[in-house]
Amino acid sequence: MTAQPHDRHRAPEEIRESLYADRSPKNIRASLPPEDHALFDREYWHALDTAKLNYDLAPVLAFQQNWWWTAYHKADPEEYAETIRAGERAMEYYERGERPPGAVRWDDSLDAQMRERIERGK
User: Which residue, of 1, 32, 80, 94, has the fewest CB within 10 Å?
Assistant: First the structure.
């Protein structure tokens, strides 16, 4: 069985383009596969209720950012499925106490190199 796009009327590129243009909850929900709508709705209303009680929009903004990324990644079902499979393969290595092939060992020197590259604009 191959993964089918959740919106047969829009290609993954079109979904992602719409997400860049419109980050509203309405558009994010419309860009998600139907099986994610119920969870999206519950988390949306929870974020709004929390924001109302605390007079703080941080939960709404965090909700929006999280679901935006989810919709972006799920726009291409085959690519998303491969990402999940790659993560599962990596976990198998970690469970055996090994580092997956191509895994980057992050340390202070790599952090310094990345900061230097950013400062140079590369």
Answer: 1
Residue whose tokens read 């709404």: 60
As a whole number, mean pLDDT of residues 116-121 equals 86
- Tell me how far CA of residue 109 lies from CA of 104, 105, 113, in angstroms: 12, 10, 6
Tell me the pLDDT tens digit for each residue of 70-90. Answer: 999 999 999 999 999 999 999
Q: Is 97 left (phi over 0), alpha (psi -120 to 50) or beta?
A: left
Residue 4: partners with Cβ closer than 8 Å, 6 or more residues away: 77
- The pTM of this model reads 0.72
Residue 1, pLDDT above cutoff 60 = no
How far are the Cα atoms of 7, 28, 65, 72, 104 from residue 4, in angstroms, in the given order?
9, 19, 25, 16, 32
